[in-house]
Write a structure and sequence with these properties.
This protein has helices spanning about 35-45, 155-165, 280-285; strands at about 5-15, 20-30, 60-65, 70-80, 100-110, 115, 125, 140-150, 165-170, 180-195, 195-210, 215-220, 220-225, 225-230, 230-235, 235-240, 245-250, 255, 270, 275-280. The protein is mainly β and about 290 residues long. It has 3 domains: about 5-90, Alpha-Beta Plaits, CATH 3.30.70; about 95-215 and about 275-285, no CATH class; about 220-265, no CATH class.
C-alpha cells in the first residue's frame, strides 16, 4: 500500500530570546491501505537534514507519524538549528566532521630551571648559592588540553597504540616539535537510525595536551660518580678534621660533557626525549575552522 495524496495542515514557529528557533510543519496523508511508517514520513518531502522551506538555517531533526486509520495519517516534522550549523551538518554519522574542544589547566611538573631577573628570556639552572643542584622542586605550568571527537566505521586500534604517549614530530597547531603529547584514544560503539537505515559506528575521542616547555626531560648533568681518564670513580668530599678523609658525597656533583667533575659554572642541563615522535597532522588532522 502507498500514499495517495498529501496536504499541508499548518506551520508553527517559536523563537525565545537567547535561544535557537524551532519550527514544525504538519502534513496529512491519504492512504490506499495500511502503509509502512517510513514510506509515510518520506512522502511528506522532509527527511533528516532537509532545510525548512522558509527558514533555511533550520533543518529537519525529527519526524512523528500518527495513523488514525489504515487510510489516514498525520505527520509532524520538527526543525531546529544544528549545533554545527547548516553548512557542516551531515545526517549520516560517518560523514560528520570531528568536533574539537579546548580547555586549560595548571599541572605540577618537576623543574631544574628558573627565570632569572625580569622577563622570560634568561633561564638558568636551579642551584643554591654554593652551586649545588636543588632537587625535588616543582612548578605549576599551564597546560592546554585538546579533545578531538569523531565517528569511525571501526575503532582504530592500531593507530591508538601507535600514537598513545607519542609527541609531535613536526610543528603542529603552531607549536614546535615535542610540545604536544597524545594521552590516549577511547571509543564506544553505538547505533543510530538515519532516514530509515540503521548505522552502527564507533564514537572515538583522542585527547592531546600541550605544554610550552614541551615533553622532553630536562635533567642536570650530575651524579654520584664521575669519569677520571675513562675510569668510573665515586665522587667524594673531605670529611671533618682532624682526619679530613675522603668520604662519598651525599649529594650529586656537576659533570662536564665528558663525564669529569665540573669545578665551576652552572650545571649543564641535558635534554632527553623518552617518548616516540610521530606526525600529528597525519593522525589527527587540523581544526575545521
Amino acid at each position: 500500500m502507498a500514499v495517495v495524496s498529501t496536504r499541508e495542515l499548518g506551520r508553527s514557529f517559536s523563537h525565545r530570546f537567547g535561544e535557537s528557533p524551532t519550527a514544525q510543519i504538519r502534513i496529512a496523508f491519504l492512504l490506499d491501505g495500511a502503509t509502512p511508517t517510513q514510506s509515510i514520513i518520506s512522502s511528506g518531502g522532509y527527511v533528516h537534514g532537509t532545510p525548512h522551506p522558509e527558514y533555511a538555517y533550520m533543518l529537519c531533526t525529527d519526524g512523528q507519524v500518527t495513523e488514525s486509520s489504515a487510510y489516514q495519517a498525520e505527520a509532524v516534522y520538527s526543525f531546529a538549528t544544528p549545533a554545527v550549523g547548516t553548512a557542516g551538518f551531515e545526517a549520516s554519522p560517518l560523514a560528520r566532521d570531528d568536533v574539537w574542544s579546548f580547555s586549560t589547566s595548571g599541572v605540577a611538573v618537576p623543574t631544574f630551571r628558573y627565570y632569572n631577573g625580569t622577563g622570560n628570556a634568561d633561564i638558568k639552572p636551579l642551584v643554591n648559592s654554593a652551586g649545588d643542584i636543588i632537587e625535588g622542586a616543582q612548578a605549576i605550568e599551564g597546560e592546554l588540553r585538546l579533545t578531538i571527537a569523531g565517528n569511525r566505521a571501526t575503532f582504530p586500534a592500531a593507530n591508538a597504540i601507535a600514537v598513545t604517549g607519542a609527541l609531535n614530530a613536526d610543528s603542529y597547531l603552531g607549536a614546535a616539535p615535542y610540545q604536544w603529547q597524545c594521552l590516549g584514544i577511547s571509543g564506544q560503539q553505538t547505533t543510530e537510525v538515519v532516514n530509515g537505515f540503521q548505522v552502527t559506528y564507533w564514537q572515538v575521542a583522542a585527547e592531546l595536551t600541550y605544554k610550552p616547555s614541551g615533553y622532553q626531560l630536562y635533567l642536570p648533568n650530575a651524579g654520584w660518580n664521575y669519569l677520571d681518564g675513562g675510569v668510573l670513580k665515586r665522587a667524594t668530599v673531605k670529611g671533618p678534621p682532624p682526619d679530613n678523609d675522603d668520604i662519598p658525597s651525599a649529594n650529586v656533583v656537576k659533570l662536564t660533557a665528558g663525564g669529569a667533575i665540573q669545578t665551576s659554572g652552572d650545571p649543564i642541563i641535558l635534554q632527553r626525549r623518552v617518548n616516540p615522535a610521530v606526525n600529528f597532522a597525519t593522525y589527527f588532522g587540523t581544526p575545521p575552522f
